[in-house]
Every structure is written in C-alpha cells, then in structure tokens.
Design brief:
The protein has 283 residues and is mainly alpha-helical. It contains eleven helices and three strands. The two termini are 26 Å apart. It holds the Pfam family Peptidase_M48. Its cofactor is Zn(2+).
Length: 283
C-alpha cells in the first residue's frame, strides 16, 4: 500500500498533494534540529556511477512482483490487518525525517507491506519500498520501539543508497577491465542497475554499511519519538534468536548480530536521547 497516494475518493489534483500535506503537518508538529547527532560521514560518491532512477524503477518492479507472488499465496496482509496498521503508524512517524538524509526521498512513493511468513526478515528497497515478514514481529515479540528501529535501519540503507553503491563497486570493477567503458556514458552501468533488481533482496552490505544503517536508523527513530535504548534490546533479541533453533533467520544472514554492534549502539544512544525526549514533549 502506498502510504501517501491519494485515496480514490479524493478529487484529482497533484498526485503528491496528500503526501505534501502530511509532510508539512508532520514537520510542524515534530520539529527537530536538522543537524545529525550521529556521525556517519558523507555518502560514498561511487553511488553516482549508477543512475538512481534506473535502480529505483527496477526495485519498484521487483517489489510489485514480490507482492503479486505473496498475494497469489494469500500471504499478503490486507490493509485492515492489525500488524500492518501498526507498521503504517510507525512509518508515518519515521518518514518525515528521511529527507535530510537524502533529498531524493521527497520523490519516493513510500510503501509498507506485511507478508505472512515464518521468516525473520524485513527490508527497504531503493525508492522506499518496505516489507516486513510476520515472523520477525511474532517470533521476536517486537515492541513498537524495536520495530521502529528495524524500520529505521532498513530505511537508512535506502537513504544512504547502499545498494546503489554496492552495485557501482562490483559492476564498476568489472567494467574497468573492459577498456574503461564506464566513461562512455555509463550505459553499461545503467543496464547493470536495471538488471539487478531481482538481486536487491539478497544484496550483501558491508560492515560499514550496516554500521551506518544502525546509526541513521537510530536517529530517525529517536526523532520520531521511539525509545533509543530499543536499538540495544532489539539486537540482543537478534543475538538470542541466532543461537536458538528458530527457523528462517534470513535477516541475520545479511545483518549479523554481535557484541561489537551492540557496543556501538550503546555508545550512540546517549547522543540521540535528547531528540527522543524532545519528540515526546512535542508529541
């Protein structure tokens, strides 16, 4: 479901009118300092080798195919599903704080869907296409604060354009061996981005990508009024799940838990605590 698309009963005006109205209202009611409290540095310039629009369009196509498959299996949650409504409420609090991290997010048609599966998994594809599996909510018994940390983390991957960067690195290296063809209009890189949509769900991010997503997601969630310490309890739950006999740990195959990850989050929780407290006062 597109969170900011006009309802069918709304008279046609600008297709973004509902989205703009929501963002303006949210910005007025949840004002916070623009300056980031966590330090993740600048986004990699390598991502510019891959056309953002091409990758986002490819991701949108792959996302729709995934939803069609889930629908055919009767695994796609309807709009009135309580868990999906819960996720929509979290997303509507987080999304207004996305744009300072990536101006392209103004144009994204954010979607959040819930898929019935025992898999412990969630993701956000380029362009703001979010999906949760029921397994991650149910098996880990996530609180709203913990679910917000996961959503913020996955949104951060998209906002920092980690997929775009990874594709640029892998495909750019290969193309460099072909007489520097990446300098000739970047056509090959564009084709690579378009053809890799089906691999976006299994794309492996680097340790630095994961660290960035943890910290940006932590700040997004804190600005939206979610308890920062939930980032620590979330990854403690992840660590416990990885050592148990629970099946379908897809999330942990690409997002490994560990003491170092938890220590870094514990170090950064105090940096965003003031944002959380301000959000709670203003909310």
């Amino acid at each position: 479901m597109c969170l900011f698309c006009p309802a069918p009963s709304v008279a046609p005006s600008s297709p973004w009118s509902a989205r703009r109205a929501f963002l303006l209202a949210a910005g007025a009611s949840a004002a916070a300092p623009v300056l980031a409290q966590v330090d993740v540095g600048s986004a990699s310039s390598l991502r510019k080798l891959v056309p953002a629009e091409t990758l986002e369009n490819s991701a949108a196509q792959q996302y729709q195919q995934m939803l069609q498959q889930a629908r055919a299996k009767r695994a796609l949650a309807p709009d009135n599903h309580p868990q999906l409504q819960r996720l929509h409420a979290i997303a509507k609090r987080l999304i207004p704080y996305a744009t300072p991290w990536n101006d392209r997010a103004r144009q994204w048609r954010w979607e959040v869907n819930l898929i019935g599966s025992s898999q412990i998994n969630a993701f956000c594809m380029p362009g703001g296409k979010i999906a949760f599996y029921t397994g991650i909510l149910d098996q880990l018994k996530l609180t709203d604060d913990e679910a917000a940390m996961i959503m913020g983390h996955e949104m951060a991957h998209a906002l920092r354009e980690h997929a775009r960067e990874r594709i640029a690195k892998t495909q750019g290296t290969n193309l460099a061996l072909r007489l520097g063809s990446q300098l000739l209009g970047l056509g090959d890189l564009g084709q690579a981005a378009a053809g890799l949509g089906g691999q976006l769900l299994t794309l492996q991010f680097s340790r630095s990508d994961e660290s960035e997503a943890d910290l940006v997601g932590l700040e997004l969630a804190a600005r939206a009024g979610y308890q920062p310490s939930a980032a620590v309890s979330l990854w403690q739950k992840m660590g416990n799940a990885s050592g148990s006999k629970q099946g379908g740990l897809a999330f942990l195959s690409t997002h490994p838990s560990g003491p170092a990850r938890i220590r870094e989050l514990e170090t950064n929780v105090p940096k965003v605590q003031g944002l959380y407290e301000a959000a709670r006062r203003n909310g």
